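Notes to self after the Tuesday call (sharing in case useful).
The group wants a holo model before anyone commits to mutagenesis around the pocket. I volunteered. Ligand is HAX. Logging inputs and output together so the record is complete.
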Amino acid sequence: MGYLKDLFKQKADAHSKEIKGIIEKYGNTKIEDVTLAQVYQGMRGITGLVTETSLLDANEGIRFRGYSIPELREKLPKAEKGNEPLPEGLFYLMLIGEVPSENDVDHLSAVLARRSHVPNYVFAVIESFPTSAHPMTQFTAAILALQTESKFAKAYNEGLSKKDYWSFVYEDAMTLIARLPRIAAYIYRRKYRNGEHIQPDGMLDWAGNFAHMLGFEDESFKELMRLYLTIHADHEGGNVSAHATHLVGSALSDPYLSFAAGMTGLAGPLHGLANQEVIRWIDEMCKELNNAEPSKEEIAAYIKKTLAEGKVVPGYGHAVLRKTDPRFIAQMEFAKRHCPDNSMIKTVWNIYEVAPPILENTGKIKNPWPNVDAHSGALLKHYGLIEEDFYTVMFGVSRALGVLASLCWDRALGFPIERPKSITTDWVKKNIMKETVAE
Ligand code: HAX
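Result:
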């Protein structure tokens, strides 16, 4: 076993023992009451999962193993001459629970580079799609094609003891994370760059190499990738992509199948696809107004029009957050340093000034503030990555770090199959409203 895997096992064994003690002593403690409205309305606010990698506070935003995004930007190791954290460092933190040293991160970068070879049949699956297919469809299909490599599925077929599940899930998680940038870059170059592919550079870090394979050599774009792949990695356990990965994994579907499920969820416009929708919405607004930098008054009128048409304003609102998303702030700070004069970025900042009071005035939107997706596309556009239907794939590459670290923990802690109870409205009528219902 590599030292990282040994260390993970040590941490997991100690934690598993701790959890057993907690359940023994406090297992019958009630933590909250659940209302019928919560059951009908997307289980909002119901605590039903343990996800060790990160915790979301409604006002403060995400903390990864206790560290906020500004703290991570300061504490995690960086590339040579870089300012932004290396996402490998965040993965280490989520997996092991401690801030890694530069050596730890170098080691992890090297492990990922060694495992990054993608078998040709995966590219053949991508090639079998029309280039018009959405990149998220191609991405998910490629992940499923890669499933044939699953060490967990193979070992399970051959008869695997429960106590060893974690070890094979860990191996699959590492390999999958290592290969995702190559798969994503292949989809990008095939669809938008005439199939002129760029070979990986094993000397680069995981995010730097992703930028390189996409075809962007600008050092500040590589820095953006390091930041982007760090901040999109995890958002506790209840969001659709994390929850779907965890849920499917709980059936002992291997990490490839589980992660593919997470990605089909990320592809929804209310979740990860919102980053694409934001850019489309801004583009449509600019086109309709015939103005690349609409005034605040014009933006306000366009937001009201969007709401009047019964559509959502993409990039705004959140199921848990009640303040500006710190992931939005981190990107805004990056843009202020690297590209403050870009028209679309200035428009993103103007929307940020104008949208919240309008959304708040509707009286129904619980969080009028921007989320991560409100800013990301404009930054990518600035560097020439203009194809917005690819943006959710980039989000997916990052999300793998969080949900696969969590999947390792799920199996190491022996979490059982997930199976919440559901009810029918007839059950509600009979048991809560005390009506007589025909059987
Ligand atoms: N524009 C218009 N209406 C909105 C809205 C927005 N940005 N945000 C919420 N609402 C509406 C809801 O549709 C809902 O309307 P109805 O009662 O008519 O159904 C009402 O306000 C109450 O919703 P809520 O309780 O405030 O929000 P939810 O927890 O139900 O939904 C969403 C959270 C993120 C899905 C929602 O805010 C939304 O649709 N936002 C726009 C899409 C978006 O940016 N998604 C990305 C979220 C972050 C993420 O996962 N990134 O990957």
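Two things stood out.
The pocket of HAX is lined by residues 239, 270-272, 274, 307, 312-319, 364-367, 371-373 (CB under 6 Å).
The first strand starts at residue 54 and ends at 57.
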